[in-house]
Amino acid sequence: MFHAMSHYQYPPLSPGSDSIRLLRLMPDKDEKAPIQCELFEYSLQESRNETHLYEALSYVWGSPETPESISIDKHNLPVTANLHAALSRLRDCSFERIIWADFVCINQEDKKDEKERQIQSMAKIYGKANRVIVYLGEGTRASNQALENIRVAAEDESTNPSISEKSRKAILKLLERP
């Protein structure tokens, strides 16, 4: 039934506006359940706050060779396996999340100026997000160990005297990047 849905058709964004699309990732207690989402238009000018209540997702698109499907407003949208995995990891069991993910929130089939305008606004979109989530892919033993080593190295030097103060400060600066 999931794959029998019609293909999602993007409505155009309001012309001449500072609008973007945001993805409402619906909760599900079943980790294996199909990913259900809604897309809605959002104006970056609506709030006077410096940041907005959405999370921007940064990830590697990966190969389009073996697409996965998500449901947007009860319509099928093929996405890369990496984006599908990221959304699966980000989906909460009880609460919806509001996410900006370029592959979904920018109409990739747009042949006019909307796609170009959205791409040119990406720095602003990431900068206005409440936070940016970086999805590095599924963990492996080696990558999990590398992240743990970075975490330990960034701790107080008294707990890890083998790391120089200069290295510790450099790691902290890396982890504090906006």
From TrEMBL:
Source taxon at top rank: Eukaryota
InterPro entries in UniProt: HET, HetReg/Transcr_Mod
Residue ranges constituting the Heterokaryon incompatibility domain according to the UniProt record: 54-165
One Pfam family recorded for the sequence: HET
Protein name listed in UniProt: Heterokaryon incompatibility domain-containing protein
Organism whose genome encodes this protein: Hyaloscypha variabilis (strain UAMH 11265 / GT02V1 / F) (Meliniomyces variabilis)
Phylogenetic placement of the source organism: Eukaryota, Fungi, Dikarya, Ascomycota, Pezizomycotina
